[in-house]
Design brief:
Sig_transdc_resp-reg_receiver; globular; CheY-like_superfamily; 18% strand; 146 residues; alpha/beta; single chain
Length: 146
């Protein structure tokens, strides 16, 4: 009985995770947001630059961050700050994963664009489970930072 209560509590925690999307391509950001909302999760906000991302950070648990944004190649700095200063689980989504091949301190990993909705769902499930201390399988499309 206690196990079922814990599992129910953990499942509830999974769906309460809020996702910040840091992406300057509006249609890509909307598509990511629709996928997240379709999973029953909340989008904490859409940001296209450093200022917006850091302003929305207190509302988020998970973040998908592009490398090149409206204010230049600020994604790695944003991702580091989101992870270190706000405790957000960060995954980079970029067409240029080699730019951050050595990793970004505090961030979980990187996936190469384009990213299919099924991969976004796997990533959200992985990051949400990881945040609440549940076992989760790393999506095969993600390169995990050491």
């Amino acid at each position: 009985m206690a196990t079922n209560v814990v599992r129910h509590w953990q499942r509830d925690d999974l769906t309460k995770q809020r996702v910040l999307i840091v992406e300057d391509e509006f249609l890509i950001a909307l598509d990511l947001g629709a996928t997240v909302e379709g999973m029953g999760m909340q989008v904490a906000g859409l940001a296209s630059d450093r200022e917006q991302a850091l302003r929305l950070a207190p509302l988020a648990d998970i973040a998908f961050v592009d490398v090149n944004l409206a204010d230049g190649p600020t994604g790695p700095e944003i991702g580091r700050r989101l992870a270190q200063e706000h405790g957000i689980a960060v995954v980079f989504m970029t067409g240029n994963p080699e730019v951050i091949a050595d990793g970004v301190k505090g961030a979980v990993g990187v996936v190469q664009k384009p990213v299919m909705p099924s991969v976004v769902q796997q990533l959200v499930n992985y990051l949400a489970a990881r945040r609440v201390g549940m076992f989760a399988v790393v999506p095969s499309q993600m390169t995990v930072f050491a």
